[in-house]
Design brief:
mainly beta, Jelly Rolls, 17-stranded mixed β-sheet
Length: about 240
């Protein structure tokens, strides 16, 4: 093989290698944003709420969530032209029973006192299983809440005060929903339990399929006037 041909081959190999590197870099920097108010994450199609409605009589942002290059989901509260806009995602599919697990990367226990993080299943306001992190507008008190709706029913909601040493970064939240019980669990990444609750009032346990939902919303404008971002690094469903 001639010298010219060898140089050409080496050049083509270098060019191909550079192309592969550029494609890899480009892909690693790509984020995914909603299309027509929907986004796919963890094998699920999720729809983003728009308009203005409860909870909190909030404005909802149909572009308020995105997926980063590490496949982590971001939910936002942002001020847009003087209006605070929150984010809610709802699964396309419904589930009757199962174990629903979220891993949260953000320090949710340090979030503004007027914000609420919700991880839950939902059919209606009276058929809902909730994990919420919020101070409900207070500067002190409980920051973690489990509820079987309607929450006003005695024994259907429980709040927990989380130690200051736990910021919420890399914490895990789980709803285990069975016909005869609901078990709520929150834990640190190492498995250490933050708080758990076994709910065994069978008459209060939802018995119809529900959607899975996640939201970040406001009771009132953030007290510090800053935008808020919730990062959820993983989500799984086991409905065996």
């Amino acid at each position: 093989m001639g010298k010219t041909n060898m140089q050409t081959i080496k050049y083509l190999i270098c060019l191909f290698t550079l192309l592969v590197v550029l494609i890899t870099v480009f892909q690693s920097e790509t984020n995914t944003y909603p299309s027509n108010g929907a986004i796919n994450w963890k094998g699920q199609d999720w729809y983003l709420m728009g308009g203005r409605s409860d909870p909190g009589d909030n404005y909802w942002n149909k572009t308020g969530a995105w997926i980063d290059n590490q496949n982590k989901l971001h939910l936002t509260v942002v001020k847009d032209k003087g209006i605070w806009k929150c984010t809610t995602l709802m699964s396309q599919d419904t589930y009757l029973y199962g174990t629903f697990t979220w891993k949260v990367a953000s320090p949710v226990y340090t979030f503004d006192k007027n914000s609420v993080v919700g991880l839950f299943t939902y059919l209606s306001d009276s058929q809902e299983l909730d994990i919420e992190t919020t101070k409900w507008g207070k500067t002190e008190g409980n920051q973690l809440w489990y509820s079987v709706q309607p929450a006003k029913t005695e024994g259907n909601t429980q709040g927990y005060q989380v130690p200051l040493s736990i910021t919420g970064t890399d914490t895990i939240y789980r709803i285990e929903w069975k016909p005869t019980y609901v078990r709520f669990t929150s834990m640190k990444e190492n498995g250490e339990i933050i708080a758990n609750l076994n709910y065994t009032n069978v008459s209060g346990i939802p018995q119809q399929p529900e959607k899975v939902m996640m939201n970040l919303w406001l009771l009132a404008p953030p007290s510090d006037g800053k935008n808020i971002e919730l990062i959820i690094s993983d989500f799984t469903i086991n409905n065996d």
